[in-house]
Amino acid sequence: MRIEILWNQQTTTVDLADGMATVGGGEGDGICIEGLPHELLTLRLVGKQLSVTSKRSVRVGDALFPARVARLLIEGEDLKLPNDVVIRRVVDQQKRDSRKLVATAFVAQELLCGGLSPEDTRAATFTCVTGLDRGRIFPVPFEDNVIGRADDASIRVRDRAVSRYHVRLLRQARAYTLQLITSSMNGVYVNGLLLKKDRVLETGDVVEVGQTILRFDAAERAPEERTVASKATDLAAGQQKAHQLVPSPVTVPVAAEPAPQLQLPTAPPRQLSLETVLMSAGLALMMLGALAAALMIR
User: Fold this and answer.
1) What is the pLDDT of residues 17-41, one digit of tens each?
2) Measured between alpha carbons, how far is 238 from 60 in angstroms, rounded to an integer?
3) Which of these, 121, 151, 285, 287, could form a disulfide with 102 (CB 3.0-4.6 Å)?
4) 209: how many CB neighbours lie within 10 A of its CB?
């Protein structure tokens, strides 16, 4: 397993082997960092579980963690030490990408049938980082979930300091809200602060019930899960991109053609009837006769 040590604006990667190793500023520490107390941390790696115990209170993310309590370190979590030293467990991206795309609605049924490992689901989960259930992953299968030690609790923890029905987690769409139960006499802490009213959980939030600490991870979205709004946005972007790819129309000059000449229709030749011809001929003879008579009188 790999961890990263961020210190003095430098990042150093360390490969951990199974077993125990100490982190501190002493010569005998397995991981020596100048300026830290001797054997400040004890790291214990067993299989895929990395536990850390500190001699003094340290911060994991935004939450203060008590000293001398073994705490599971989750992938991507930052362990903040004195002198601005940060230890981070490296995320196994290949393992993350290979997880099955199992929806929340099927988690409970699959777990009961034994066909699903909690690590294979993209549903929201609680990871127990302290106590008897340390290392156990609890999927959040229902819209209304109860955390407690009762046998019928949705998320059952083995801790006598936890009420039978300690706190409720409600799922609405993609939001997970932590809600107090009036019958519970024990407090609930989120990131070290006492819960006094409903609170929406975010990935990485730490919930403390009794002596048990749970780390919340919100449900992951499958690549094909997109909202209508995102689809519309993608469609508009695609249309705009396609419009940019289409070349603008090019105007090609064309030689002007001569305007066509207007031709008027010609009138058909007039045909004279036989009667008209005879009348014209008779009229002409009468005029000739009158002319001849006039000449003889002279």
Assistant:
1) 999 999 999 989 999 998 899 999 9
2) 43
3) 121
4) 25
The span from the CA of 156 to the CA of 147, in Å, is: 6
Half-sphere exposure of 62 (CA within 13 A, CB side): 11
Sheet of 125-128: strand order equals 137-139, 125-128, 212-217, 206-209, 188-190, 193-194
State the pTM of this model.
Answer: 0.64
- C-alpha dihedral (157, 160, 165, 167), degrees to nearest 10: -70
CA distance 208 to 201: 13
User: What's the CA gap between 195 and 97, in Å, rounded?
Assistant: 34
The conformation of residue 83, written as its DSSP 8-state character, comes to G
**Residue 128 carries which DSSP code?**
E
Residue type, 39: E
Q: Distance (Å, rounded) from C-alpha 167 to C-alpha 182?
A: 9
